[in-house]
Each structure stands twice: as C-alpha cells, then as structure tokens.
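Example with several molecule types.
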Amino acid sequence: MTKSQNISVIINGEPISASVPLRTNLVDFLRNQVGLTGSHVGCEHGVCGACTLEVDGSMIRGCLMLAVQADGAEITTIEGFADREKAAQLQLSFQKYNALQCGYCTPGMLASALEYIEAGGKADRAAIRQHLSGNYCRCTGYQSIVDAVVAVIEQGGKQ
Amino acid sequence: MSGPLTLFDKPNSYIGKSVPRPDARRLVEGRGKYVDDLQLPRMLHAAFVRSPHAHAEIGNIDTAEATTLPGVIAVFTADDLADHVSPYVGVLTHLQGLRSPPQSPLAADRARWQGEPVVMIVAQSRAIAEDACELVDIDFEPLETVCDAGTALQDDAPVIHGEFDSNLAWQRTVDAGHVDDAFARNDVTVIEREFIFGRHTGVTLEPRASVVEYDPSEAVLTYHYSGQAPHMMQAILAKHLGLLEENVHIVARDVGGSFGIKIHTYGDDVATAAAAKILARPVKFIADRTESFVSDIHARDHTVRGRLAVDAEGKIAALEIDNLTGIGPYSMYPRTSAIECNQILNLTGAPYAIENYRARGTVVFQNKNMMCQYRAVGHPVAMAVADGLLEEAAHEIGMDVVDIRRRNLFADNAYPINSAAGMKFDDLSHQKALEKLVRFMDYEALREDQAAAQKQNIYRGIGLVSMVEVTNPSPMFYGIGGAPISAQDGASVRLDAAGAPHVSASITEQGQGTNTIIAQIAAGVFGVDIDRVKVTTGDTATTPYGGGTWASRGAGIGGEAVLQASHALKQQVLDVAGVILQARSDQLDIVDGQVVDIEIGTQRISLADLGKIVYYRGNELPADVTPELIATRHYRVTDFPFVFTNGAMAAHVEIDVETGFVTVLNFWAVEDCGRVINPKLVDEQIRGGVVQGIGGALYEECIYSPDGQLQNASMADYLVPMAAEMPDIHIAHIETPTKTSVLGAKGAGEAGTGGAPAAVMNAVNDALRPLNASIHQMPMTPQRILKALGKV
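Resulting structure tokens for the full complex:
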C-alpha cells in the first residue's frame, strides 16, 4: 500500500525529481515533500477550492490528482504566480480591496480568478461570482473578492 | 476617562482611515504561516479512531495489529492517558445549577456521540496513522440514543450520564413585570409562533490544527495553536497536563478562520499535547474535513416558543419565550454550552422598551456532537424570535413593520437604561439606525416594486431587524464563573534605538485585521508613520496577559490598551526629550517620528537620535535620568457587564414558488459600533458576518438521523454560501462612541451573523404572505418553503 514511484516535474520553473508514494495526492506532495505550503488543504474532496493550482495550463484541484499523475507536467502554484502579469495585478488588487481575511482560501481563490481573467472574462459581477463558486471563503462574504477581480479587468495594472 | 481626547482630530492620526492590512501581501503571495505548514524535526502525526455510534458501551479495545504496523510509534486509549491528563468539567459558577460530568480526551467506558475520539494513533505520517486506525478493533455495544432534545427529558428517555437523574443540564427563568396580566388584557393582540433553529457549524476553511512540542529538559511544552485565546489555552494545558503555567508556551501564527470554533477544549487536541509530552517528540494533528464536521462544536439547535402581545397602537404589552436546546453529551470546557441559551434569554426583545418579559431556558444533554459558542452566540435566535413576532404582529394589526419598530425601540435619548432582562444599555442609537436604514434601502420604492412584482406573480419580500450585539465583555462574562479567561487585555509599546515603536498585545489576529488596527492606534497616538510600527500578537512568551480576540472584544478592549500604552510611552519619550533639549516636555509633541516644538512646529530631535542617546550614549544624560522607553497598559471594562452595540438591517428576497428557492436580492446594514477605527475592515467584518448569517438562514444544517448519525459530514453535502448565491451587501454607519473608553470603539465582528437570519426570515415571510404561507424554521430550505406552501 505504500509503493512509490519516481516522478519528474517542473514546479514554478524549477525541475524537481522525487520518489512519491502512489497514493499521495499532488497537494500533499507539494506541501510536504517540496515545501511549497502556499497551496492549502481545506476539504480533501474537491469542494472547497483552497488547493487550486495549475498543471499544464489548466487550473485543477491539488487534492483530486495524484502526484504520480503529474509526472512530466509543468506545475504553477501560488508561489510562482507572481511572475504572471495578471496574477501580480490580482495580488495587488486583493490587498487594495481587502479581498481576504484569514488568507486560507486566497491562493486557490486567486488561481480561479486568474483563470477567469486570462480566459478573457468580462467585468460582469454575476459571471465572476459564478466562476468563483468553486472556491469557498468563510470570511469575506465574497463581495470584496469580486471587487478586486473587476478592478483588474477594468483597470489592468493601473491601480 | 483621562487621555488624549484630541487624538482623533490630529493630522497624523490613522484612526478612522481605511489603512490596508500590512500583512495581506504575505497571504496573497502564499507566504502565510499556518500550523499545518510546520515541519519540525522528529515530528510525528496523530490520527483518531472515533466512535461510529452515537451511544455505545466500549468493550475490549484490540490495538495489537495497529501497534505493530511499521511506522506506528504509539497507540493510546483513555486508560493510557488517564495518568497524564486530569479530567475537565464544563461548568461556570455564575450559571447557577449548570451541571456536566468530567470529560477525558478519549472516551473511556462509553461513547456518547458519533465522532467522539476513542483511540489515538501516533505514527511517522498521517497516512500511516490512518492506516493503523483501520486496524483497531473495538467492541462497541450500541445503546439506545437520546438525540431529539424534545424527548430528552421524558421519563422513559435513557439517561446519558449515570451520575445524573435526568438529561437536564441547566434551566433558567427570567420574569420581569406582570406578564400574565398583560397577556390577559382585552385590548391586546397576541401572536404565538414556534421557531426552530437547526444546528450548524463554523466550517473554518483551515481545520482545527495542533503541533505540540515538549522539551523534557526544561519541562516546557510549546503548542502551535490555531485559535483565539492563547492565554486561556496556556492555563488549560498547564492545569490538565500537570505542567507549570509558565512552562506552557502558546504560539499562534496565521489562523485560517476561527469564528469561535477554535476557542474550545477538544479531546483530540489535548490528547495530541499529551502524546507530545509522553513521547517527547513533536506531534501534529490536523483534523480532516469529516472529523471537523463530527467534532468541531456545532451551534444553535434551538426550539423557541414565543408569544407577543401588542395593543392597537402597536405598543408591545408583553413578550414571553420558552427556549429548549440540546448541547450534545457534555457542556463544552471551559466556556460551557449554556451560554447560548443564556444569551437568548438576555437578548430577546432587547432593542425594545418592554416592561413585561418572561423567558425560560432549558438545556439538555443528547447524543449528538457538542454545541458551544460560535459567532454571534444566541443573537440570531434572539433577534429572529423577537423581530419575527413583531413583524407578524404588525401585519396582524395592519401596521407597517417600520412603524411598529418606531413605536417600540428605545428612544435615542433614553440612555442609560436597563432592559427587562436586566441588560444595561448606554450610547445606543436604535431610532437613528432605523431611519437611516429606511432611507438607505429606499424602503418606499421597494414596497412599490414588491406590489408591482406581485401583480406578475413574482413574490418578493422585505424583512427588517433591529438588533443589539454583545461586545467588549467585562469579567462578568466568564471570569466571574471561575474560567481561566481574561477579560482584560494588555499592550506593551517600546521604542527601539532606530526610533520605531514595537507593540506586543494580547489580542489576536484571525484575519479581521487586529494587527492593522493595533498599528493604526499606536502610530496615531505615538506620532510615527504606520510603516514604522511593528506588531506582535499570539505568543504567550512575548505578549502581555490577556483574553484574545473573541466576543467582538479585540478592538474595543485590546485597542484601548494599545492607545493607553502608546500614550504613556509618548509621555516617557517626551520627558527624556525635555531633558535632552532642556525644554518643558509639555511643550513638545511627536509628529512623523520627530520630537517637535508644539508652539512653532519646528523639529527638535528625531526619535532615532533620541534612541541613540538613550541606548548608546547614556553618558550624555544626567545621572538621575533613567529613561524607560517602554510602557505597558492593561484595560478592562468596569462600568458595564457588556458594551452593547446596535444596528438595523434589511433583506430583500425573491421566492420561486415552484421550486422553493430563495434568492437574496439585496441586503443593507446600518451599524453603530462606536468609533470606527478602520472603515474598510469594519465593513468587511459586517459583510462576512451577514453571509454567515444568510448561511444559517437558508443553507447550513448538520442533519442527524434519529439515531444520532451525522448525515452530511462533507463539504459536498453541507451547504455553505458560495459567491454566486450571495448579494452585494450595503453598509452604513452611525458612530456613537462608548463612554467606557477613550478610544470609544465597540465591537463589530458578530453583528452581521446576529442580525441577518432575522431579516432574511422576515423577508421570506413577507414574500409568502400573499400566498397565506409562513415559515419559522431555519435553514429555510427549498423543501421547507414548498412544505410551507403546501406543495409537498
């Protein structure tokens, strides 16, 4: 039950090779073996969205993918998002609009917001709310998060 | 109160400004430091075998196979911990008559709720510990359960605790005025309803989390804590693990939400600490989501029968409530599980001038997870019952729901005044808040829209609530009853050699912005740029003693301590500056990090230069000058048991009468929390609170089977508000500072959660009224709405 396999991945631009137990999910691998603790674990069944991260260009749930499934993939986590223009703008906007309180949902929320913006999403509050409905936030009530996303779409980096 | 009363008008004050949180950048960049992020050398991981039965005798526990699994370091049962952890009892002496039996971290002879921890496995990884849990074989003999609070006191109900004669935990009655006479009057209309408030829970996104280290060489236990009350936890772990209090070190770094959930004593956390002490190795326990649902405290679970009598002019003649609540098998330690019922008795009808009031509360044991204090303790129930009855009464006598409030709310010049239940009120603004709300929401336009929509068979409703919130509690809340819970808080402010003030404070940060408002207050009072202020919270080794952040007390109590300490340090700095500059200190001030001459405004010496003289070149000072560039102040509320706030809120909803779905179209809140230190942060507290309140009103419920199995212990099945369902929430303020402090701040953290359910329920009933339907059960699910409509 604890068989392992070697995998090679590129995480935030850095090649990483590791032996991982087959049953280890991607977010546990990133957090516990690689030391990237920015992705959070909230439910372990794909509902809360706190572990949302990017694998080969798609936003996925880090708790619903095994680490071995990511072998050969390019992975970007919250620690690597700042290099992307829209992500950096979102990070500033989240601060400006106080689109976070405890911060636990934030890495996943930001990933989902980034996915929306990079796909050309419009500054439509209802559409943004719909898109972010896979990410649970207990603190903010969501309004400030929507404000932050709208601001990035409308103003880009000019904040 | 003495103090810098002109502080708020000074040009360099940050108080009242929406200063962004300095710690937000760290969190948006993935640099947060939560408990689960800790990886310590030699660290082990704990997992628990929990009772699958709500009520069962525990027979033989076979751990042989689990013990031999490679990677398992230790296995503990209740017997194994008995010599290491003393039992704890969740009672407080001021809640007279409250009883609860001693509790141990792991169930001993009998399991009393589904999810109660029975065996702890400690292993090299959480995965191995969970594997070993599967190998533990426990002989459970299921017993008859008592789950329905309504039957828990019947003669034939099984009694959960052998040492008691029944499942009764506590009872209290309030009786003011002449209630029976008032109901018997022939000129009053009497409204009677039964309200049911389902169980829900906090669902902090970061689950409960503990990492505990023990150093046997110094007998020091370090507990990495995700919670709200470090000093309380220090006292509790010391007492029950047999350690000196000073040898228990609590450290809270980033806390991923708490809302009251993480302020209690949980068996699995205590067992983890015991394991760390016994094994002398760090042990980590992170609850998974299923464990969270079955072991994080639940809240509400109240049935309230309420009666209200009003005369033809809408004046309240009498109010009577009877509240029954089930709290699980024990009263939670150390805050107890009777507080919510107590609050309901104290707060129902509290905004209104009511002379005749009777309230009875009954708290019973049952075989469900434990119930205890979660955000807005008792408020959602108290407000929904009183304002639900009041709106029903208004319709019954043909009066507008705003008008009936105008006639009954305490006048804004009535204070100080006591409520029928004996609550002391001062500095409130109910009437002003109601009028502001009516204008803010454009009440008349909404009524017109409602009438027009109804002609097209669109059912919209408007519901209001006028409310109070308990904030800034004094020692009368817990300390008086014997709990190791501080009602006072402290702050130390010291000046370093570079001229920067460092604040360490006993209130805590869980995301609401505590550290930010501490910096705002210190920077403004002391007179430096906010970027220069360093703040430390959450660490018992480095902060003054205090209660922490809960019960909407952080800003009001801890903030005042910061204000007083900053003011004191400033005087001390100016005294030294006076010596150095050969000037009178009362003619000096500190502005932007410079000591200036008050009269002509010229800069005389920078704080950095002053620091260098004091710390490096003390030879330049007269020998009898011994500067103290550190000041500590503590503050507690003395004049009142609580400093109440008030607010008025409104919900606008639309009901799909075919599906039963409720859409919250809009929500407004007018809040008077005294002086607003940071408007943005206060607004966000209220918004987040409102959404938690809407969750309780419409979605959230811990659904139990009749035999005590939690049916929806996953985030897929337990519905929380997500972005798409929530409206934008509009917030306005009235600022009536409390006279109990110089700062004048009251709390704001719980108002939204306390008021929103009442407003939403009233709005739903307003929408259903043309269909002759009503609902007084939360959450108001589509199924229950359809049932109210007679469609299912």
